[in-house]
Structures are given as C-alpha cells and as structure tokens.
Amino acid sequence: MRERLKSSRSKSLSGSLLLAHPVLRDPNFRRSVILMSVHNGEGAMGMVLNRPLGRLLGDLHAEFALGPLAGVPVFQGGPVQTEQLILAAWQTRDDGFKLHLGIEPDKAVELSREEGVHVRAFLGYSGWSAGQLENELKQDTWVVTAVPGDLMSHPQDEALWRTVLGNVSLDWRLRMNEPEDTSLN
C-alpha cells in the first residue's frame, strides 16, 4: 500500500477518492470519503461524499422548493465556506466517471434527466493550500484509491467509508475495525 501512496503523491489526485485513515480524529474528516475535484501546485479541493445533512435542497432554499431539484439531497461538503451552496452532478460510466462541479441550477436540472446521473448539493467544501495535502499524505492521514464503479449504489453515510476502505485491501479491512482507543484493545 505504501508504494501506491508514494506514486500518487507525485501526480494529480483529481478524480480520486481520499479515505480518512482509521486513526484520523479530526471531526471534520473522521471516516470521510472525499471526491477530489482539483489537485495541482496551487492546492486541492474536494467534496465529502458521506456526510448527509438529512435535508433536501427544497427544504434548504425556497427557490428550489417546488422545482425539479427539490428532492436533491444536501451534504456537508467540508469545513471551508460552509454557507456556500455547491451543486454537483456525476455519471459513472464504464470508462470512469464524469464530474460537473459548481454547476448552475439549470445545468443540474438538465443533467438530472440523463440516465445514471447523480445530482447533489453540498454546503462547503474541503480544501488544502499548496503542499498541505502532500504533507498530510506523507503522514499517512489519507488512503488514496480510485472511484469504484458502484460508488453511488452504497449508502452515502459512514457506511460508505467502511465499504470503500474495506475494498482497498484486506489490510485496510482489518485496520478499519481497530478500536477508537487502541489502549482498550
């Protein structure tokens, strides 16, 4: 696993998933699954996929209450600019997936009519300044993996973290079940 992480550090992680290491305790990222949308020399940005707020877009904003986006689930995208509403859509395909991030409501409606497209609303996002994510990767804070084709078929809560991390390798499947306080082991 370490070799895989080393090789991913030197290239863009855009389009990958970051899975919080099982011992990560930061409440913003504990057991999170982050879809990386940008990763370059200026920094990185992604959306936490498994923090549902239990609200729909129609409940959150009156402008969406009666429209075709009223039933779009709202997630906490991360700790940065948590009042900012970000619409996203993606489609899982045989050759990967296509992500549309920060789209206008009209575009979200258009995309939602296409087969296999998932539309979500996020409050906030996850962001890293230049070099910050690379330093966290050196400290093994994150497990980097490809987006599985069946990502959207799983519950989009903490169970998603368990499912995806458990499918990375047997070692991670065992490590994700470590107790919070290893002294109790």
Task: Write up this protein.
With 185 residues, this protein is of the alpha+beta class. It has one domain (2-180): VC0467-like (3-Layer(aba) Sandwich). The protein has six helices and nine strands; from the N terminus they run H-E-E-E-E-H-E-E-E-H-E-H-E-H-H. Strands 1, 2, 3, 4, 5, 6, 7, 8 and 9 form a nine-stranded mixed sheet that branches. The longest helix has 11 residues, at 158-168. The protein is globular.
Q: Give me the secondary-structure category.
A: alpha+beta
Mean pLDDT: 87
The largest pleated sheet is described as: 9 strands, mixed
Radius of gyration based on Cα positions: 17 Å
Number of domains: 1
Shape: globular
**What level of helicity do the residues show?**
10-25%
How much beta, percentage-wise?
A: 35-45%
CATH homologous superfamily?
A: VC0467-like
Strand and helix order:
HEEEEHEEEHEHEHH
Would you identify the CATH architecture?
3-Layer(aba) Sandwich
What's the CATH topology label?
VC0467-like
Distance separating the two termini: 24 Å
Number of helices: 6
Provide the CATH top-level class: Alpha Beta
List the helices and strands and how they pair.
Blueprint: H1 2-9, E1 16-20, E2 33-40, E3 43-48, E4 52-56, H2 57-60, E5 73-76, E6 80-93, E7 96-101, H3 105-112, E8 117-129, H4 132-138, E9 142-146, H5 158-168, H6 170-175
Parallel strand pairs: 5-8
Antiparallel strand pairs: 1-2, 1-9, 2-3, 3-8, 4-5, 6-7, 6-8
